[in-house]
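2024-03-11 09:14:02 DEBUG pipeline.ingest accepted 1 chain
2024-03-11 09:14:02 DEBUG pipeline.ingest length=289
2024-03-11 09:14:03 DEBUG pipeline.predict start
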Amino acid sequence: MELGYLRYPPTVMATMDDLYTLPDDKIVIVTTGSQGEPMSSLSRMAMDDHKQIKVKEGDTVILSSRFIPGNERAIGRVINHLFRRGANVFYEQVSDIHVSGHACREEQKMMINLVRPKYFIPIHGEYRHLVYHARLAEGLNIPKENIFILENGDVAKFTNEGGVKEKKVASGRVFVDGKSIGDVGSIVLRDRQHLGMDGVIIVLLGLEKSTSKIIVGPEIISRGFIYEEEAKDIMEELKKIVLTVLEEMDQEVKQEWILVKERVTGSLKRYIKKRMERRPMIIPVIIEV
């Protein structure tokens, strides 16, 4: 509006207070939330959580945008909730109503010719878009050596001597876990995912230090794998497998706790995979008595 691209009579602009006195069929609201952003106005209207605006039966909602890859589920949820409120929703999959907010090729040329930059770094879009934008700048006599195509983590360094593309730095998502920031690595996250998907089995064994004779156990503790009270036969079978592994091991080998743990873990994994097609995390705990 300030640039003069959108023109309308001043009498058609209404405040939020005016909405309560105007007929519904005389109101158009331009709002945010076309990509399903959780805290956007449209999302809150769809969830009937907006303090001032309520979507009613017969309202029309137009999403004049494309579904950005990765946002499909969030946008779908908003559309479903709008239909639950009784609205009629138009979006790209049912109507050709998309209005691009991006500059076209000729507008990009105009911008480059107006600014005449010494260096050019295309921003936004997938890598192919950056390449096309870089070629456009090169076609407008921006030196190729002064055009940098950067990806996440790439560094462009500018000094009085000029600009150069340097090596990458660490980039991406930073995991916040309690009071720690960035301390949780990929291995820990993988373990958490493993636990969340298949659960954990803990095998407790008490072995006599000198003879490796079983003094306590084996006790099997399961969390997130099976409900022990309803699968006692499986728990007993797991105990038998552990006992069989220990019986088949030589006395000398049983003195090496690491080998004992590896064989117990391997035997249980094979049994569970064959019987249940699952891969729980298995943690043997050996206590010297």
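2024-03-11 09:14:41 DEBUG pipeline.report The first strand starts at residue 60 and ends at 62.
2024-03-11 09:14:41 DEBUG pipeline.predict end
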